[in-house]
Amino acid sequence: MLNRIILIGRLVRDPELRYTPAGVANCSFTLAVDRPFVNQKGERDTDFIDIVTWRKLAETCASHLGKGRLVAVDGRLQIRQYETAEGQRRRVSEVIADTVRFLDWPDRGREGSRPDSEPDLGGASDEENIPF
Description:
There is one protein chain. It is globular and about 45 Å long. The longest helix has 10 residues, at 55-64. Residues 112-122 and 128-132 have low confidence and may be disordered. It has one domain (5-106): CATH 2.40.50.140. It has one helix at 55-64; strands at 5-11, 16-19, 25-38, 44-54, 70-83, 89-102, 124-125. It has a 5-stranded mixed beta barrel with strand order 1-3-4-6-5. It is mostly beta strands. It is built from 1 helix and 7 strands, in the order ββββαβββ.
């Protein structure tokens, strides 16, 4: 079996970094990804896809990404279920990222840009040891 997804898109909001009770970092953000075809109006539709990163990759994404940044995500699709306080069952689809590549440089005048000292990371994954 194979569960692999590769996406390229822009962040629609700044990443949110949280920690589990055990102290494991996780970061979530949403990517806007254009569809490769036009609709009946001649426009491209956009999908908004939730991305989740864990551990060191989560901390790296939270530190160096912001709204509008262009990234490539390589990971797997996960569909989970939960029950609301009102007893309604919900399903959530999200991509659990193994690798996030930063495809642009932050624009100092653009919302979501980061400090001048951003390292040249090309990409980051949980398996890599990224020196900061």
